[in-house]
Amino acid sequence: MEDKNANLNRNILYLFSFLLGLGGGTLSFFVYFLPRIFLVRSWQFKFDVYSALISISFFLSAIFSSYRGFSLSNFVVVFFLYIVYLFLRKDKFSREDTAGFLDYFILGSAMLAFGGIIGYLYKGVYADTPFMGKNGIGTILATATPLVQLKVLSTDKLYHYIFFVFILSGLILSMSQGAWVGLVMGEILLLVLGNKRIRRSIVILVLFTVISFIIFSIHSILVGNDLLSFFHTRLDPYSTSKVERIYIWRSSIKMFLDHPITGIGIGTFPLIYPSYKLPEARELSMSFAHNLPLNLLVETGIFGFLSFLAFIVSLYKKGLRLYKEAQDDFILILIASLTAYLGHQLFDGTMWSLHIGLIFWFMGAIILNLCERDKLKSP
């Protein structure tokens, strides 16, 4: 009976991972969460201090918010993500099972990338889909790139190369600068800490990126679409999107200074921003600060920011220690993947959406679980 439940849990996580990669995090949440209510016999979770502090600080930000009811409703969403994280931490799957979950995440990401490429061919500007915009696609594909990079390194299966082509092509066509920067940050980490084999894969990735962009550019010229003109706006340091972000960040700093302890309340940025909008800013309404640290400072105050920072530092510290001891490429690639994800959040706020935010908790739980399993094996 226990083996049957374990197999069922494993299959649920396969589907969960696939939907996450496909950009269906909301559906994956229900696929994973609801069965746990009936399958988990013991609700005795193993709490880690820093993740618990994040939930507490977010709750306090909602309680002391001027928009308490609205903020509490947003906190409920965050709290459910935290519960999923606790379930993931409770699951005792092997390293091989974990690699299988990431295989399904890569599969979903490849399908998302293919859909984005079709969107580009249809619109002729950038990759998107009817249910996910370019920045959301960029976040997922930047996260998936180091993972599929490892698959290309460690296996000789053709479909991994096909997934690699789709994912990297979709990321290029997303025209999501923040996602590009995030991936560069992840690859720099691999370059500094990785072995010769990983560094060789980075060279291959760069070469493929250059060749792909040349091919897409030639295609854009031949068909006369707007890809290159849109790309030029990405390079323009004074483009509207970049200037607007600076205005948002300046307003966000003022918002934090007025509410430094517990912030304005989780999820209330779009309600408060109009009161702080600079006269020269064009957008009257803004959903988030387009920068994760600033968004945390504004909505959850210094308490929420420090709690989140402590969790991230702990995550990297344990993961990098495990890599140093085991010299396992799998661990380093996971950390690089998380780095790519977080790197994008320095310029955007896709993490605040349920269908993408769940990836952060998923990756965090995987890294910490692997660290604990290795610790148990140690004499």
Residue-averaged pLDDT: 90
Q: Which stretches are poorly predicted, pLDDT < 50 over at least 5 residues?
A: none
Tally of separate helices: 15
Structural class: mainly alpha
Describe this protein with a few key phrases:
single chain, 379 residues, mainly alpha, 15 helices, 0% strand
3D architecture notes:
The protein has helices spanning 2-22, 25-39, 49-63, 68-90, 95-123, 134-154, 158-173, 177-193, 196-223, 227-235, 240-258, 269-276, 292-326, 329-344, 354-377. By secondary structure, it is mainly alpha-helical. It has one domain. Helix 3 packs antiparallel against helix 4 and helix 7 packs across helix 9 (196-223). It is globular and about 55 Å long. The mean pLDDT is 90.
Task: Map the helices and strands.
Layout lengths: L1 H21 L2 H15 L9 H15 L4 H23 L4 H29 L10 H21 L3 H16 L3 H17 L2 H28 L3 H9 L4 H19 L10 H8 L15 H35 L2 H16 L9 H24 L2
Helix pairs in contact: 1-2, 1-5, 2-4, 2-15, 3-4, 3-13, 4-15, 5-6, 5-7, 6-7, 6-8, 6-14, 7-9, 8-14, 11-13, 13-14, 13-15, 14-15
Please provide a brief summary of the model.
The chain is mainly α. Helix content is 78%, strand content 0%.
